[in-house]
Amino acid sequence: MLGLFHAADRFIWKFFTAACSVLMFLTVTFTAYTIVMRYVFHNPPAWGDTMSVFANIWLVFLALPLTVREKEHIALSLLANMVSLRTSFIIQSIWTLLISGVGFFLLIVGWENAITSVGRYWELFYMPKTYPLMILPISGFFCAWGGIASMIEDWERYKAGTFQPVGATLA
User: Fold this and answer.
1) 170 lies in some domain
2) What pTM was estimated for this model as a whole?
3) Cβ atoms 168, 88 nearer than 8 A
4) Is 36 domain-assigned?
């Protein structure tokens, strides 16, 4: 069971890394295209700025679960060298649990906001505002997943005696 979980976890993070790369490329491409069309051809596309902003927002919200999973978020690393390994494990677990809770909150509230959003983007061929807002529950779900996967990984390492707190320096 845990083997399947770890395989799914690896696939998800590889996919998110690739998606973030594509979204970064799209952000730059949409921005450059809009600038060239505006200043060289004096005919900017109505959708250019909006698509650039959406690609950037989706990039940030897809990178958030990556930071949670890789423990690159703001962490309590200052305490890592001041307390025992067991205490550090407990603090890190509580911190990761709190971040997972934020993910669940983003999932629930983001879903409610996305499905109740009214209106359309005229510059994007009257696309419903629900579609771009779906990044909120997606990001929330994967933040929660990343936090849970991180806790499982920390627990396995703690039991095996190989656990290292985030930000710990080797003495």
Assistant:
1) no
2) 0.86
3) yes
4) yes
Mean pLDDT score across all residues of the chain: 91
Give yes or no for residue 168 having a pLDDT over 90.
no
d(C-alpha 72, C-alpha 65), whole Å: 10
Q: Domain residues for 48?
A: 2-160
- Residue 171: what pLDDT? 46
Q: Which residues contact 62 (CB under 8 A, 6 or more apart)?
A: 16, 19, 20, 23, 135, 138, 139, 142
Residue 166 lies in a domain: no
Q: What is the C-alpha separation between 141 and 104, in angstroms, rounded?
A: 6
| Count: domains in the chain | 1
Residue 74's pLDDT band (boundaries 50, 70, 90)? low
Residue 92 lies in a domain: yes
